[in-house]
Amino acid sequence: MIRIIQNLEPLFEVVDHALPDTLFVFDVDFVIAMPGNPFLQAATQRDLSRYVDGVLQGLSPEEVEICYTLMSRDPMAQLVDPAFLDLMALIYKKRHRAIALTAILAGTWQKLDSVKTRYQALKRLGVDFSKSFPDLERWELRELPSFLGAHPTFHRGILCSNGLHVEKGTVLHKFCSEVGWPNAVVFVDDLHFNLLSVQKVLEKERISHSLWHYTAAASLTPNSSLQAESVREHWQQLADQARILLATEFSQK
Fold first, then answer.
1. Of 190, 123, 192, 199, the residue nearest 158 (C-alpha)
2. Is the pTM here over 0.70, yes or no?
3. Which of 219, 220, 237, 252 has its CA 20 to 30 A from that of 151?
4. Which positions of the chain have pLDDT values less than 70?
5. Contact (Cβ atoms closer than 8 angstroms) between residue 195 and residue 211
6. Alpha carbon of 220 to those of 6, 44, 92, 202: distances in Å?
7. What digits encode the pLDDT tens for the residues 38-64?
């Protein structure tokens, strides 16, 4: 069963009653963090989807993936809910482990290691997943398919699927098969298809689990001062940047 929640309160109870050695797995964008830039926020994408989708429909799948990873690098990023820090503290207090599972692109581009950059951005917000697997700092999952010159990658508690080319469930299965399956998994994501892919894997492996569709970011009230044409122009700039990156940096990979 996939449960829908608009706040973190039910997850505190889940932590309190979790089986020993439960692994908590959190999506990053619009679950832990979201852009501070109002043009990029989930509520804007929801209410002005006509203009955002109009831009994205003109892009190739590769350009769309680059576009969303650029969005995740917003320097004004903020926590969706500051209570997430308390939730993490409780998870560690109860001696459980936690990782992030994100679909941003991996690899190094714009002179930045993408997964390392994500780790650093979360740490600036007070979120640090490196405590759960302290002996596993960096791991490229080369047995899984590559995309745009990179493979799914683990870095200090951040597990990156490297776009949607490989499902999150597949990446989590490979990770747990190598490090050891926990007694239970709690997975939180804002996209239903990600939850389904993880559910399929956990049911196949007969791992106890609970799945949570977290809608807080999309439920926020959008900035009423935003003009539709300004939103379209902002996303068009992002799309143009993605096209340039695909034709330059990614063409060499």
1. 123
2. yes
3. 237
4. 251-253
5. yes
6. 10, 9, 29, 31
7. 888 988 888 888 888 899 999 999 999
